[in-house]
Amino acid sequence: MKGLYVHIPFCQYICHYCDFVKRVPKSQDMIDEYLIRLRDEINSYSNHFDSIETIYIGGGTPSMLTIDQLTFLFDSLRRINPIEYTIEVNPESYTHEKGLLFKKYGINRISMGVQSFDDNVLAYLNRGHKTETVELIVKDLQSIGIPYISIDLIFAIPGQTLDHIKKDLDEFLKLGITHLSYYSLILEDKTYFYHQYLKGKFKPIEEDLEAQMYEYIIDRLEKNGYEHYEISNFAKNNHYSLHNTIYWSLGEYIGVGMGAHGFIDNHRTYNERGLPQYLDHFTKERVLQTQEDLLQDDLIFGLRKRKGIFIDDIEKKYNIKLLEKYPKLLEQESYGLVEFKDGYLRLTRKGMMLGNQVFMLFI
Known about the structure:
- With 363 residues, the protein is α/β, with parallel strands linked by helices.
- It folds into two domains: 246 residues, TIM Barrel; 57 residues, no CATH class.
- Helix content is 41%, strand content 21%.
- The strands form three sheets. It has a nine-stranded mixed beta sheet with strand order 7-8-6-5-4-3-2-1-9, with helices on both faces. A three-stranded antiparallel beta sheet has the order 10-11-12, with no helix packed on it. The protein has a three-stranded antiparallel beta sheet with strand order 13-15-14.
- Helix 1 packs parallel to helix 2, helix 3 packs parallel to helix 5 and helix 6 packs parallel to helix 8.
- The radius of gyration is 21 Å and the shape is globular.
């Protein structure tokens, strides 16, 4: 499969944990100017339009765009007919009118940034919505006929307890949707939380509590019919994120927009992160991937998937013997972080918590 990622960098406010390329726009004109240049970049890939099978519009906050701006954006993508068409939505910027527009243009998957069902936790994260709006939006999207809805939640937030996680999953399960992305909070550079950490005002939760939360999340969701198919992702009835699966399977995808990344024609592409630079020229860097680069990515991304990597495929593709090239994998097996089973190498549940220890073997 081939995907297209479209980045909308604008936000009404900045969340305390977010390190994505984003900014609060000074005016609607700034957004309009960006969308015009974004359309130009989209059209520069027109020779790929027939082969694109997924579109993912992310941010930032795509749903903060006005109806006219969203219409302009969707019209810019109209020549593409994807199987899966996703847009990210924040609850506070969703309206019924926008939902109808999504349906009109063929969007069939919503990824909603919920993060928590506790208003105090939301305030701590600097989120702009209240928990009671989430269920109303899900029902509205379902009534409009959007078939696939996913939400994002975060655990391991300072101050969270296991009871918070139980409540979040109680509320999620009431929604009756088939996909959940549940991420542990990572302290990223250049975020508000990181600056608080440098001042001694942010203390990450204990690793043992984080592990308990993760174990509880996996067990609770699996008991309710959700497959844990990637480190942070759970799906019911095979409703996987096709677009994200492209990333984890080392498939090709085009990245357009400020700060977007792509992997196309055996090159990694990196767009300019600053608005003036992006408006002047889109691409900052285009890097040809070596076989060693591709092997590294295949192993790291592949091990994010719960099923792991099929060893025979990797060995044939790169003309290697896996354990000869990475003998320390046996050491990781002895630590209980990876397992070899039915021809696959995969992370154990413990390994999914400590994946970076395994991934470092390949870098």
